[in-house]
Design brief:
alpha+beta, single chain
């Protein structure tokens, strides 16, 4: 079951996170919001995302943000202090890391090493993204069909092939609980989440998020469905802010 929480992060001074707790955080001018419910009941504690009793009821969650994190430093702060504390928060950082990687290979790799559980997961992601994303650029060429520089945007609410993968503002990653039950692995408990997207014929993109047995932050365990070929864009993609 995908648990939910309410989390708001507003960034006041670049490089300096402030006022963070289960609901709020500040860092520069960027704003991050997480909300959702289980069986229609809104949860207001990030700790509620620990699903020790397995999947129950109907859970939904969303993470909204005004901007992609500017660099690895900001990404790390958001992950370690807030989003990495929940299943859905960690899942929402995948498209953020993909976009950072497309802009700056070195910093993007650091982001994946931070949020992923092991080297195998990182290697699988980077092998595909290195092949798909061409020279570093914030923008995609007209009618880009293979490189699909717009792939991170395809995971955001409102983005479709028809509208040039232009997401609604603020950017939002919407999620629901997967039909798959949690599983115990060598490394920890593996939870299954669907990211909802209009970028593929199958709108539920499965993501596995791991809570290590030693505790700490959640980790990305597996996510191949989010970087497979999406629908070809119509027109030009104008990038993300």
């Amino acid at each position: 079951m995908l648990a939910t929480a309410i989390l708001i992060a507003t960034f006041a001074t670049a490089g300096t996170p402030k006022g963070n707790n289960d609901k709020t955080m500040t860092y520069g001018s960027h704003t991050y919001t997480v909300s959702g419910s289980i069986n229609g009941k809104t949860l207001d504690s990030i700790a509620s995302s620990i699903l020790s009793n397995g999947y129950k009821g109907k859970a939904t969650a969303k993470v909204s943000f005004t901007n992609i994190p500017s660099d690895y430093e900001e990404f790390e702060a958001v992950y370690t202090q807030l989003l990495g504390k929940s299943i859905h928060g960690t899942a929402a950082m995948i498209p953020m890391a993909m976009e950072i990687y497309a802009r700056d290979r070195e910093q993007g790799e650091q982001c994946f090493w931070l949020i992923c559980n092991n080297s195998s997961t990182v290697s699988q992601i980077l092998r595909i993204l290195k092949d798909k994303f061409g020279p570093q650029s914030q923008y995609a060429p007209e009618n880009d069909t293979y490189g699909q520089r717009y792939l991170p945007a395809a995971l955001l609410k409102g983005a479709t092939a028809q509208n040039g993968y232009t997401p609604t503002l603020p950017y939002t990653v919407e999620m629901t609980a997967s039909v798959n039950k949690s599983q115990e692995t060598t490394y920890g408990t593996d939870y299954f989440v669907y990211i909802l997207s209009k970028g593929w014929d199958t709108e539920q993109r499965s993501v596995e998020i791991l809570l290590p047995y030693e505790g700490g932050l959640y980790k990305v365990f597996n996510c191949p469905s989010v970087y497979t070929q999406c629908k070809n864009i119509r027109g030009k993609w104008n990038g993300l802010q």
